[in-house]
């Protein structure tokens, strides 16, 4: 079964970031997930624009940039001009007055447009945007911090989004508290990829290659 595995780089060892990128790439990661937080849309600060630029220069693999910031349209050009064609930018629709305008800027730059959906955001609230985006990142935890508990009611949201994905031409991705049970359940349903953080990938005192191989060899 084919699905993407993305490394949540806010969980990486920033004292050895170059080594982290190299070992993840050697281990077979598909892309690097970059969480940008402004301390206002969420109550935390995580990675910065410069962190994103550093990782963009350190690898040829795609970046998935998750903007957890208020009014991303204000500074979206700072990110767009530093990314490569094919990289992804996710915005939170609630954070912008006119999210379709911001998404159009991402599209015009040759990047992949995405939206991130908080646990408390219904599919109905973002339904029309599903016709614009190519990726939908579903948060299974409230955004802003790693190592949070899974919110079980989010599972129904995945079912709803997967029902429309072929008609509207987008893929669905999982972000937050991703353990083996989540991949075993939702990959066969059609979830295209999973963001891996402290639950499965980081801080395990095992080579990334071994962990990623174990995930890909899971018996469905």
What does this structure look like?
With 220 residues, this protein is an alpha/beta fold. Helices cover 30% and strands 19% of the residues. It has 7 helices and 8 strands, in the order βαβαβαβαββαβαβα. Strands 1-2-3-4-5-6-7-8 form an 8-stranded parallel beta barrel, surrounded by 4 helices. The longest helix is centred in the C-terminal third of the chain and has 15 residues, at 154-168.
In brief:
The chain has 220 residues and is of the alpha/beta class. It has 7 helices and 8 strands; from the N terminus they run βαβαβαβαββαβαβα.
* Low-confidence regions: none
- How many E strands? 8
Proportion of residues in helical segments: 25-40%
Question: How do the helices and strands follow one another from N- to C-terminus?
Answer: EHEHEHEHEEHEHEH
Shape: globular
Q: Determine the strand fraction and express it as a percent band.
A: 15-25%
The total count of helices amounts to 7
State the distance separating the first and last CA atoms. 8 Å
The oligomeric state of the chains shown is: single chain
CA gyration radius, whole angstroms = 16 Å
**Mind summarizing the main beta sheet?**
8 strands, parallel, barrel
pLDDT averaged over residues: 93
The assigned structural class equals: alpha/beta
How does the SSE layout of this entry go?
Elements: E1 4-8, H1 17-27, E2 31-37, H2 49-58, E3 63-68, H3 76-80, E4 88-91, H4 99-108, E5 112-117, E6 135-139, H5 154-168, E7 171-175, H6 180-186, E8 193-196, H7 208-216
Parallel strand pairs: 1-2, 1-8, 2-3, 3-4, 4-5, 5-6, 6-7, 7-8
